[in-house]
Amino acid sequence: MAEAGNSGGGARKRKMADKKDAGGARKLAPNSNWPAIKSKKNLQITRLKDSDLFTVPEFLSATESKAFIRAAESIGFVHQGSLGPTMGEAYRDNDRISVNDPVLASTLWDSGLSKLFSDIKIRGKVAVGLNPNIRFYRYKVGQRFGRHIDESADIGDGKRTYYTLLIYLSGSSKAKASKSELDSQKDASMVPLVGGETVFYGWRNNVVAEVAPAEGMALLHIHGDKCMLHEARNVSKGMKYVFRSDVAFA
Questions:
Q1: What is the domain range of residue 145?
Q2: Which residues are in the Fe2OG dioxygenase domain (predicted)?
Q3: Whole-structure pTM value
């Protein structure tokens, strides 16, 4: 699977990681309660490593991000752990939902993501859409995802994933909090997020980029053979919510 927490090791350990990840997921049918996604115009790209790693600030609005959190919470998260590095899996401690929803994947892709990949080709293939396997992650205080790589996956019909898509649903925000939101900050999900940075490593474990979660920001990075080792750091305050999919090429 594209998101298996592979921390290294041989093929046997990689297969074990894939099996564990698939078995621990709660896979659900499409949800009709997703928020309406508006078309995105004038998206700005911040390149952190050429086209291999870049962010898109405010890809989702604050309203859309919060609506996704409410929808995910209404479904219910399931804890996701791992066997650990000694068994070929990265350390993993978070909560997770997996939904197979081609309509949601298509809606997000058509809202503006497709334009970001118009000039990117991999092995002669072009980006054609998102993996319909949509995942939501929730990190509470003390939770993190250790150093790992994301694997490329064959999703059928001649399509293979080559990029990871993360959209931070919580984090720093330019939007001012409403009075009701300020009053509800006694709820951990509304407390401002501290920690949870996504950190990418290059040669000799030098830090290539450290990305702090920002509400609505999309992060895209190449995965598979060229995937950089990366981790999700410990959350020290609040809750970190992430929307996850993959960009497929054909």
A1: 11-249
A2: 129-250
A3: 0.85
Token couple for 189: 């999900």
Backbone angles phi, psi at 150, to 5 degrees: -100, 130
Domain count for the chain: 1
Structural contact between residues 235 and 157, judged by C-beta atoms closer than 8 angstroms: no
Which pLDDT belongs to residue 139?
98
Query: What are the structure tokens assigned to 130, written together?
Result: 């998102």
Round to whole Å and give the CA distance between 99 and 133.
Answer: 6
Please give the Cα distance from 91 to 234 (Å, whole number).
Answer: 12
Query: Which of the two residues, 11 and 231, has the higher pLDDT score?
Result: 231
Q: Is residue 189 in a domain?
A: yes
Residue 57 within any structural domain of the chain: yes
Instruction: Pull the structure tokens for residue 40.
Output: 């995105």
Give the CATH number for residue 225: 2.60.120.620
- What whole-number distance in Å separates Cα of residue 23 and Cα of residue 187? 31
Distance CA 38, CA 189 (A): 24
Tens digit of each residue's pLDDT (9 = 90 or more) over 131-156: 999 999 999 999 999 999 999 999 99
Instruction: Judge whether 4 lies within some domain.
Output: no
DSSP assignment letter at 191: S
Output the six-digit token pair for 63: 């309203």
Q: Does any domain span residue 2?
A: no
